[in-house]
Write a structure and sequence with these properties.
By secondary structure, the chain is an alpha/beta fold. Helices cover 46% and strands 19% of the residues.
Amino acid sequence: MELLDASRSIVVVIDMQGKLMEMAYRSSMVVRATIRLLRLAELFRVPVVLTEQYPKGIGVTDPRVRAAFDQLTVPKGYLEKTSFGCCGDPRFETLLAEVRPGLAPTQRQIVVAGIEAQVCVMQTVIELLRTNHQVHVCWECVSGRGEEYRRHALERMARAGAVITNHESVAFEWARDSKHPAFREMSALLKEGQLLE
């Protein structure tokens, strides 16, 4: 598994929606970390795809996460789905190709945030791995209905071949060097407020 390369990365934010977010373990941490990840994606010009699972029944994306997504100027895509895993909807592959054209699946590096870890996130990650994507899961941007659900899902994703990482590691891998033009802004962003609770 390689270090992340901003020119090959895509951030995917999975189903951070009303009723699901209310039940998620450490949901406030997940929201704050995901917003920071989105701001880092903007800083390093990394495309973003956001998905919603049957919003008529579950509710829409958390308004804070949606606002951060809507403010992005990088290439971005939105998918409303009924399949639990994103890859179960053929439009997901189309979106990945649209936001990051010219890359084969084997060249893509997918950075994952979302809920629920044990359902939609895990199915998406395992299917992405099966189609030879590199997958990096930000542990503090992922949750489920309880600590055990989250922990065991992260363990299963790691066993399947995903890298369990965090948004700070992602940022430093995108930058690679303190001489990167975005480094100072990145550093300031990472110092903003308390993230972990």
